## 1
Amino acid sequence: VVSTQSTWGYKEGIERLNFLKAENAKLEDAHRATMAALETRCDKILQENREMTAKQVRTLNERKATIEKMRESALEKLPQAVKDSMTLRPIRASLIEEEPDDPSVDPRQIEMVERLWENFKIKSRKTYAVMRSVDRGDFVENCTYFDPPGTIGLTASMTSPTIQAMALDAMKRTLPKAKKILELGASCGYLSTCMTKRQPRDGVLFTLVQSSSTASKIKDNISKHHRALIDEGRIVVQQRDFNLGLPDQAPFDIIYIAATVPSISEAIRSQLRVGGMLIAVVGSHIDKEFCCITKKENGSLEKRILTKVTHVGIFSNVR
């Protein structure tokens, strides 16, 4: 009896094992079928996305072509006298002045500068060229290729491309002959690089910063693709008191203050040469003035307001 019961128990165990194997095989088949269906669905979605992207690109190109045709048609309808008397601004500045782009510059930098040009935020071809050649990606972490101010770390911000372009446009006649430039309060070195590239090769830009860490960061940023400017001594970064300026190197052809100040101190004004220009955001309220100040022969200052701005980061010690 014991032997018979053992035999039946063994057979039941074998049958149970075979049943479980069969069920497991069914589950594996179902899993493979599900994965195959998911893979097919994913491939279909990817293909649809590719087709949609291609369609969007075609639509964008068609719209650009339509706008260009409308522009040409509008120009054809103008009287010849008007055509002869007006200077038409090209859609892209690159149509005026073909210069090879630096391969190290992100294409998004080129597109950003093109947008600024097309929207008349860049007015000088030289400003256009120098901003194309210096990649904001080397200097700023967020909003890199957009017009709002970018952020640097947790507490500092970088001036927006529009304000930077406006500053460079204001300096366009002075920069090519500026032997000495003083920059107060640079946070990353972008505009320092742009200004120095427009200076004569024997010119020097002195930039004063608040901390040694900021000085090191600026040097590192510039050295990514413009190390020669540091090595040749064309950009000198120092940690010094903004309020005093740099009297031992005065007078300066250009003084640029890279943040908001309540007013311009006599110590800073005295370091500007006759005929030189000082550019800064001035004011102590929410609405401030982005100014270009020129020093006259009699020592008086002539202020020209470039634009009204809302600017953060007041240097209270630069008065």
## 2
Amino acid sequence: MERSGVDPGDSGSSSPSLDGLPGSPGMHRNPSPPPSEGEESAEGDAIGNTVYSKHWLFSTLTRLIQVVSDQEGGSGAGDSEAQLDLDEEVESEICKVWDMSMDQDVARFLQEFKAADILLGVIGKSKSSRLTEICVGVLGNIACFPETCQSISGNEDLGEVLLLLLGDSDPPTLLETSRLLLTCLSQPSVAPCWVERIRQQKSVCENLCFVMSSSTNVDLLVKVGEVVDKLFDLDEELMRSWIRGARGSAAPSPGHPTADREPANDTPALDIAPCVLEAAKQLRSDSPDGLEVYMHILQLLTTVDEGIQAIDLPLIGSLIRVLQYLGECQQRETERREPGSEEEAGDNHLKILKDTCCEFLANILTELPKDTVSELVQRGYLSEETCSTAVQSLLSLYSTATRHFLAVLSEVDEKLAEGLLKDFPSLRP
């Protein structure tokens, strides 16, 4: 799938971009689904213990199939990529199915009715981004229950299409696709099959990196970050392969279940750390929870040698800037409080985030060689101000890492190191 409509710099384009979600379900609540015509409904028409009508649901799904058939027949040969508007009445009805699918009885009924295959066909033929978004959203609701999630996850064709949708140019569709993937990855019984699919589909890594590095949409960045965080937490080998920039199936370590497979061809290196960092930078003032997710991803990267080697110089400087920003936030919070107030200073989320940043930075500084420190100083990432911020943040809990950093710094820039010793005399031998 092409990304022609996702250029964040093309603000004058009429194509969808990754900035903003004007029609997403997070912005506008879908209308409530219809009951099954009250007491006049035929006996047995209700779905499970609900008041929802089987007949109405059949009719709506049938209508949905007709909609995509009409879209396919109504587009010319040169309009294969053109997006069509969804009829408001049709959209309203399908949104009711979206809401209904949050009920377990409805989800189970949809599974028995082979709705996943129907929705797969609709997604494959749809020329409406909104229609695709809603269909993926329904699948995401169905996947919230273990039994129905098992059924969806066993559909190989559906799995392949959903992973390809991560390359879509429509932000709401990307958001719902990411939500569905996270739901499946959070189910222990089906997570391994999804990890394996992702391992084999090289476009997943590059598409997620593209979103992280170019989107300014908070909801989308947070959800994509949660997917990446979950993947790395589930499978260290997948994380290693993404750090190496190879295909998901490439070169697992000895002993891994896929170690006896023939490695796939390598693709050009993908810079995971800068993409994660760019997303974290975008979220730092809008979503403390989202920023915490990305800090945890970066922390996971440092648990393997490849990750430490992949972390570049700007990342260290940016971590220190994050600590500076958090310090400023806490200072503003302290100044905001009235004298004598017993309100606890700072937000708990900010404290958790600061702790994560400090642990991450301490891990890096412990392994930092002299030549890297020298380059950090030369490029301006390590200055009197940034060094002071780092030492002040780390000294109480990570004194070993702080002393190692100071020892290396003294070999590179004795004046800078001496200034730190003056400000923090407890560091003197």
## 3
Amino acid sequence: MSSDALVLTSSQKEIFEKFKAKVKDIIKPTHDDFYLVKWLRARSWDIPKAEKMFRDDQEWRRVNEIDKLVTSYEPPEVLEKYYPGGIIGQTKDGYPVWIETLATADQKGLYNCVTKKEVLRFKEYFAEKLFNVRCPEISKQLGKRIDMGVYIVDLEGLSLKHLWKPAIDIYVEMVATAEAHYPEALKSAYVINAPTIFPIAYSIVKPFLSEDTRRKIKVIGSNYKEHLLKEIPADQLPVNWGGTDKDPDGDPYCRSRICMGGTVPEKYYRKKMLTENNDLSKFTAVTVQKGSSLQLDFEIKVQKSLLSWNFFTDENDIAFGVYRKTSADQRQKATDMEALVQTERVNSHVIPEAGSIQCDQTGSYVVRFDNNYSWINNKKLYYLIEVVEPDVGRELQRLDSTDF
């Protein structure tokens, strides 16, 4: 590693020296020039912005004891066994590879077991292991600096049911944390097996990604194995993704190193955990009177938009349905509208209800909460309804023609 040299232009060197002088009071012995320059690059060489980012990070690390995670943190068993992802192999130039299979996660099962804070802590722990343990190990082995990783996101099986509000909120916060506290840590990201709903999923996280990160994301189609093998040796990639690596028992997914998720057993469940994982400040609270209903109208202006819902009731069930108006000029009865989700009673007082539909047509859509069947109980309802329009930025690289 002694052969590595920080290559900067004369103007960059001047900015870098000024930056170091500004933050010298918080620089630690482990903060070498390669580490410090990342903060400037992440803020386009703007000294005040880079200084604020670096100081915010150091305070975050202090308050949350991030530097102690690797040695003192004990991950919850349910996350170790059922949260998808893992470090597997290295690229041809030595960068560690992380594979995550998002659709194999039992989202509701996991969030019945752990809080949002616990999930974030778990991901922070893995980030620390990757960048502060694994990367230094590889650097020592190869005799050169390795301080970035390659990320493979396998979206096989991803559907509307996975675009569940509590899970999305946590994933967005993971992305925001990575951008704020691990600058210049991504060498490249490959999205494989992208389904037709990928534009909606991407539009949700896109606002939290820096321009530099967006440029590093590559969406690969059906021949993704060929592309992955251009960067990753076959013996460093599991058989399932086009390589030759497998577990001693022949497992092509290398489950001994990559968690593949799966259904979470109810023995791990905690009461009311789903409600605790929701930010209730975003919910609207109403009382649906006995013998009545609540009808909420939403105008869909872009085809393929996502209409999602998340709701729960205090003590009793409620009926729920989603419709598309056949006449936009007037209020319609449920029987006169096109039913997209048939009205059915749901036990939203036991477990919060969440779901979504893709709106193939523009027009007026109705989310309906029905309490007409009850002549005794009013229902205290908390709901969050959102419309997300598809928006895949042109900065995404497509390595072949991907149909979504």
## 4
Amino acid sequence: MAAITTTTAPPQTRTVRPIQNKQVVKPGLGVELLTAGTAACIADLFTFPLDTTKVRLQVQGEGGSNALQGRGVFGTLIHIAKNEGPSSLYSGIVPGLQRQMAFSAIRIGAYESVKNKYMEMSGVTGGIQLMGVRIAAGVTTGTLAILAAQPTDVVKVRMQAAGSSQQYKGVMDAYWTIGQKEGLKNGLYRGTFPNIARNCIVNVGETVVYDAAKDGFISGGYMKEGIGCHFSSAVVAGVTATLVASPVDVVKTRFMNSPRGKYRGAIHCAKQTARKEGWKTFYKGFNASCMRLVSWNIVLWLSYEQIKIAVKEQYKSKA
């Protein structure tokens, strides 16, 4: 009987390829700046008439032709629209939007990156120390933002105060006239230091308080991440910013709008204002400021958070 031989095939080896993790692509700093600047411009378009009203109320008592004594927020707003035309409420909107794309883009868009860097450098992860890191980040981005955007702020305030008086033929004429007649230091960069002080306070009041309030609402279990949480945090930030920044804001507005030589500096402006008109003057236009800042913060943060979500989804789809 013939022997039956069987051959067994050698075992097949299967090559296992390592699983490659997809690298998560995050928006860069440039995208974050653009996102913040866009959200701030949207907020300005909605609330600029209140900002113009606030400026007019703050320069009351300086003897200008636009002084509107004895009128409240809505009385002043209606008076401007009726006597100068509705377009006067948007005087200075172009430099205002230019300001937001330079100023808010930096102070809000760079805030998270600067905060994370400070946390990494200090090793802080929570507690009261984290609030210190947040404040430091807010002061840093607020200062850098003003150094970049100061000329736009000066032109915005001047055009808002001038209204329909035809003092300037347009935005570029305002830049040119102020620069030619008053120069950089005493013109386009006038009030830089009080503006840095004011906007560092505002940035802490808005950006830092919003960040802390949102974190508190979520970590405390009061709210979940979403529009309701963003809205509530924005209201807290707006009210806080108005309370702490109003005196500096009044001095900044008056100093920027004053003719050259009227005040020796921001401190002299504050002293003269207090001596002639009393300390209550530092909260002149407070209602307009509060209404404007609260509404501005609501539109800003809701827009900012939604744009951020859309940008992140766009990046995820490309990953």
